[in-house]
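Deviations from the work plan: none for this task. Representative record:
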Amino acid sequence: MSPTAAERIPISGLPTESTAWVGAGILDDAGRYLFSPSGRFVLAGARSAGAALDPIRRSLAGRILADVEVDDGEPEKTLASVETIADAAIAAGLRRDDALVAVGGGVATDMAGFAAAILLRGIAWNAVPTTTAGMADAAIGGKTGVNHRLGKNLLGAFHPPAAILVDPAALSTLPDRDYRAGLVEAYKAAWIADASLAARAETALPSILARDETSLLALLAGAIRIKAEIAGTDPKESGRRRLLNFGHTLGHALEAASGFGALKHGEAVAWGIAAAVAVSRRRAGLSDRDAASVLAGLSGLGPFPEPVRDRSRLEPFLARDKKTTSRGLASILLERIGAARVDETVTPDEWLDAAAIMSVS
Amino acid sequence: MSPTAAERIPISGLPTESTAWVGAGILDDAGRYLFSPSGRFVLAGARSAGAALDPIRRSLAGRILADVEVDDGEPEKTLASVETIADAAIAAGLRRDDALVAVGGGVATDMAGFAAAILLRGIAWNAVPTTTAGMADAAIGGKTGVNHRLGKNLLGAFHPPAAILVDPAALSTLPDRDYRAGLVEAYKAAWIADASLAARAETALPSILARDETSLLALLAGAIRIKAEIAGTDPKESGRRRLLNFGHTLGHALEAASGFGALKHGEAVAWGIAAAVAVSRRRAGLSDRDAASVLAGLSGLGPFPEPVRDRSRLEPFLARDKKTTSRGLASILLERIGAARVDETVTPDEWLDAAAIMSVS
């Protein structure tokens, strides 16, 4: 097999080195890109990730210490599932210089990455996202973790993967609804940080939705560069990295209040962005034109299922947002396409008002 | 209450700032030394830690978000217990700038520190050890974690406490056997790195065993300085920090094979040191005189219960030592009192030979 071309995106500034490799067909050469100090791997693959797992298994033949099946749904994103991965790795004789490969959607990579974070107090790992959400967001930047019955991602660690492999071949069995929902995170990255990428992605939307690999990879590589740059300057999310949570303050509450699974994460974020556009017009001087452009983008990615808008059902989840400090809710507002800021003065009430009226078309 | 005098030992080089405060009576002023960005604390105290918990509760009155009881035995050192601490903290409305205070023996501080490591992807924490083992070793240097059914501390994180409070008042209800077993770790630190401290601690042994506070604090402060210096130059234990595992390679296997609880950790380490002395005489040129001095120190701290010496029962646990890399077992040998080195050529068989003949008197 001839070597494939991959775009290399270094993600510097994190506690450990991290590199994203982006290219069509790179999974066939997975062994060239995946990192393990010992050369041995524990493979943790989601049930649904066969299209990506098969070439990886072929490429790593003879070097797989354990091959564990991982659940890939929010309800299974628990400490118990992490323990299942850990059990298999330890029983297989895991050593400190072995590495893990997580293959699947954001749930699988978050969980398996968290298992890598706590196994023997931290081993290296690699992420092979099989969803657009994972490629644009979840697998980049080092956040790993699981849900708690009182909220999403309340238990976890900052533990960046050594390598992230982004290959559209891994998306071949991804349902259209998930494909579109995940792209919300990629457009979000452009909207908060790169007006030029946002403009190109707006034009390319039809071909991206038609799964044209060149258009898709251009958007994903752009979104990864943005996330890499922001996460690298603020790995622990004390400052600028919070910008990536654009749409997430209300989005997390919408997702939780609607019941996990009723809304895809990206769909909840889409609604959260629509609400943030409303708040940003009033609070951050977002222009009518930029607001319309963001809403048109969301509309193109939709339609999205109707969320819970009821104040009394949303409010408890807003108060529990884990970005909350004693200073208040950290809200992300858009000043213009390409520029966002953190605002700690927006009240939960303002978000609840926006939830009542938000619209994406 | 007049302010108490505390010796301040900075532990630098770790991922986050860490300071040990050592002094008689400092728990009465706990609020001065414990760190929380928000000023609010989750208190996680072992059932057995009343002597330390009462003054801390008084000192932090009005600033305790949740007061959780933590188990403090090896069988309860599990991910499930960590989840119990996390549940209480999250239910109480924990925010990222709140901090945890762990009060108890090494099990309690390891578990609660691990809870702090993974709560909201990491909050600040403080350790108040109530055992000599915790004061000399467990609470210093940032290792946190829990046991797995296949071995000790196989799941965990490097997450240093912001402050460690070492006050002999916390030892008032500690049984004599635990008091002596824990001191093995303090003497170990002197033996591997500080011949002068080792000589002073040898002379002071009778008064230390009589619980004289001045003698005890001198040994503990010396041991903490050694651990701080070594852990600070090698926080992730890739090199020099492994020296602190002197006595632990076989010690962990003895502890596991004897059944957790049959031997205290410090007792297993004492046997492990006795074996390491035998291996070091043959492999590292340890002199008869220094060997006799170490064995006399162990003898003074003993007697220790007889461990499992059976090869077939020890061997599986030696092979699973988490310091093992593909290069081999990382054994720590003593060249002379005050100087140790890592050796990756000692075979499991040599340790099993030493286990058969080791003796501490």
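The radius of gyration of chain B is 19 Å.
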